[in-house]
C-alpha cells in the first residue's frame, strides 16, 4: 500500500520539504528502479509484490507525465502581421573553459539566432557565439549574460542582498531582465534566470525565496503587458518546487511542446536519460514554433533552442501574466 500511495503524496504535496522535493525531482529514475524491482519479484515468483511494484511505478510515472504535459500553444506556418518569431538559445556554459566553441557555433549557424541567454559563461567567454548578436547586458561574477541582435534595454538585475545592501555572492541566485525591441511594432521582456543548485537545504530555500522576492521588488515587470520569455538554469526539473513556484509566481508556461523531453544534465548521458533542469518559459500569449535540446558541446549542460511566436500588441489591462 505504501508503494501505491507514497508516490502520489510525494508528487502532489505542494509545500513538500527539502528531502521529498529531491525525491520528486529525480522521479524519472524511479521508473527504472520500479521495473528492476518488479522483474526481481517476478523471478522470485512473488506475484503480489511484483504487481504492487508495477502499479506503484505506473502511478509515479503518470503523475510525473502530468507535470510534463505540454500546455503551450504550437504555431505553424508563416507568422501574420500580428506576430513575430524569435529564435533563442538558453545555455549553462559550465564556466566556459571546456566549451567546443566551433561545435557550438556550427549547431547555431543555421538557426538564425536572435537571443543567446548564458549563465556560467565565466570571465573567459566575453563574446557572443553568434556574431550578429552584438548587444550584451552587463555581466557579473556568475557570468549571467544575454546577447541579442535586436535593440535592447536592461531593465532589471535582481540578486539577493544582505541587511547592509551587499550582494550575497555565496548563494548566487540571479534574475536579469532585458526589454528587447524586435521591430517598430513588437517588444518583449526576456528574463535570464539562474537559481542555485539545491545541493544543500539552504540553497534550495534561497532559490524558492528569491523567486517571490524578485517579483515583489521589480514592479516594472507588471507595468506594460509585454510578452515574457524566461530562459536559464532553474536547477529544478518540472517536478521540483522551484520550477513550479516560478511558474506560479510569474504565471508562465513551459515552451517545451513534448511530453517526453530530453534531459539537459549531465550532458554526456544519452539524450532522454538526463534531468531537464534548463528551461524556456513563456507567457500565455506566446506560442512555440520549434523546440530542441542541443548536443553535448563541452559543458555539463546541454543548450536549449526554441523559436517562439510573440504578439505585436501588449496584453490588455488585467491580462498581463504578472500585472497586478
Q: What's the quick description here?
A:
This protein has helices spanning 2-12, 18-25, 27-43, 47-68, 101-109, 201-217, 241-250; strands at residues 73-74, 83-92, 115-119, 135-136, 145-148, 151-158, 174-183, 186-194, 228-233, 253-254, 278-282, 287-293, 304-311. By secondary structure, it is an alpha+beta fold. Helix 6 (201-217) packs parallel to helix 7 (241-250).
Overview of this structure, please?
There is one protein chain. Helices cover about 30% and strands about 25% of the residues. It has helices spanning about 1-10, 20-25, 25-45, 45-70, 100-110, 200-215, 240-250, and strands spanning about 75, 85-90, 115-120, 135, 145-150, 150-160, 175-185, 185-195, 230-235, 255, 280, 285-295, 305-310. Helix 6 runs parallel beside helix 7 (about 240-250). It is built from seven helices and 13 strands. The strands form two sheets. A seven-stranded mixed beta sheet has the order 1-12-13-2-3-5-4, with no helix packed on it. With about 325 residues, it is of the alpha+beta class. The longest helix has 22 residues, at about 45-70. Helix 5 links the parallel strand 2 (about 85-90) and strand 3. Mean pLDDT is about 80; it is low at about 1-5. It folds into two domains: about 1-70; about 75-310, Endonuclease/exonuclease/phosphatase (Deoxyribonuclease I, Chain A, 4-Layer Sandwich), CATH 3.60.10. The termini are far apart.
Amino acid at each position: 500500500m505504501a508503494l501505491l500511495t507514497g508516490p502520489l503524496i510525494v508528487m502532489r504535496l505542494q509545500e513538500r520539504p527539502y528531502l521529498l522535493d529531491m525525491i520528486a525531482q529525480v522521479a524519472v529514475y524511479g521508473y527504472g528502479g520500479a521495473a528492476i524491482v518488479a522483474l526481481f519479484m517476478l523471478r522470485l515468483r512473488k506475484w503480489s509484490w511484483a504487481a504492487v511494484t508495477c502499479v506503484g511505478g505506473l502511478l509515479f510515472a503518470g503523475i510525473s507525465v502530468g507535470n510534463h504535459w505540454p500546455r503551450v500553444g504550437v504555431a505553424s506556418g508563416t507568422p501574420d502581421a500580428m506576430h513575430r518569431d524569435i529564435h533563442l538559445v538558453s545555455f549553462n556554459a559550465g564556466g566556459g573553459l571546456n566549451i567546443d566553441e566551433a561545435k557550438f557555433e556550427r549547431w547555431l549557424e543555421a538557426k538564425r539566432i536572435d537571443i543567446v541567454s548564458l549563465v556560467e559563461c565565466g570571465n573567459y567567454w566575453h563574446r557572443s557565439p553568434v556574431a550578429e548578436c552584438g548587444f550584451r547586458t552587463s555581466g557579473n561574477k556568475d557570468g549571467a549574460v544575454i546577447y541579442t541582435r535586436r535593440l535592447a534595454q536592461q531593465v532589471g538585475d535582481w540578486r539577493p542582498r544582505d541587511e547592509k545592501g551587499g550582494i550575497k555572492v555565496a548563494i548566487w541566485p540571479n534574475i536579469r531582465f532585458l526589454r528587447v525591441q524586435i521591430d517598430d511594432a513588437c517588444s518583449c521582456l526576456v528574463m535570464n534566470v539562474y537559481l542555485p543548485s539545491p545541493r544543500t537545504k539552504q540553497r534550495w530555500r534561497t532559490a524558492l525565496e528569491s523567486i517571490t522576492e524578485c517579483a515583489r521588488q521589480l514592479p516594472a515587470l507588471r507595468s506594460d503587458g509585454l510578452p515574457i520569455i524566461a530562459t536559464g538554469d532553474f536547477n529544478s526539473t518540472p517536478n521540483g518546487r522551484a520550477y513550479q513556484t516560478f511558474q506560479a509566481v510569474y504565471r508562465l508556461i513551459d515552451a517545451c511542446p513534448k511530453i517526453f523531453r530530453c534531459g539537459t544534465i549531465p550532458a554526456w548521458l544519452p539524450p532522454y536519460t538526463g534531468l531537464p533542469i534548463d528551461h524556456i518559459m513563456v507567457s500565455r500569449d506566446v506560442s512555440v514554433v520549434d523546440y530542441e535540446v542541443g548536443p553535448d558541446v563541452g559543458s555539463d549542460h546541454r543548450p536549449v533552442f526554441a523559436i517562439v511566436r510573440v504578439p505585436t500588441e501588449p496584453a490588455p489591462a488585467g491580462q498581463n501574466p504578472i500585472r497586478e
